Amino acid sequence: QVQLVESGGGSVQPGGSLRLSCAASGDLRRVFAMGWYRQGPGEQRDLVALISSMDRVNYADFVKGRFTISRDNTKNTLYLQMNSLKPEDTAVYYCSANQHYWGQGTQVTVSL
């Protein structure tokens, strides 16, 4: 089992920045990829960014150049640095391991 706990969400004005964190615990030996996903009201859950065990990263087109995924293996923590935030980035952001384990989500709201 893997447990994931997100933090760092909040409210910010357009153009602002936030950094999300995801603390992982449990049996992490079988985790080969971790990622951030988001789900807006009435929408499906979409991939935002993914990082593999070999540190290969992939981003959704709508965040390229604005968001950066990274991780600190010494702390078992995944991060998502979000810059130049837009109102359409408003969503619940979820951390995932192997697209199988999920955190509880953290709300990000971008508005004036």
Task: Walk me through what this model shows.
The chain has 112 residues and is mainly β. Helix content is 0%, strand content 55%. The chain contains no helices and 11 strands. It has strands spanning 2-7, 10-12, 18-26, 33-39, 45-52, 57-59, 67-72, 77-82, 91-97, 101-102, 106-110. The strands form 2 sheets. Strands 2, 4, 5, 6, 9, 10 and 11 form a 7-stranded mixed sheet that branches. Strand 5 and strand 6 (57-59) form a beta hairpin. The chain is globular and about 40 Å long.
What are the secondary-structure elements, in order, as H or E?
EEEEEEEEEEE
Q: Helicity range of the residues?
A: under 10%
Number of helices: 0
Q: Structural class, from helix and strand content?
A: mainly beta
Give the termini distance in whole angstroms.
Answer: 40 Å
Multimer state = single chain
Q: What is Rg?
A: 13 Å
Largest sheet: 7 strands, mixed
Q: Can you give the mean pLDDT?
A: 96
Give the overall form: globular
Number of strand elements = 11
Low-pLDDT runs of 5+ residues are: none
In what range is the share of β-strand residues?
Answer: over 45%
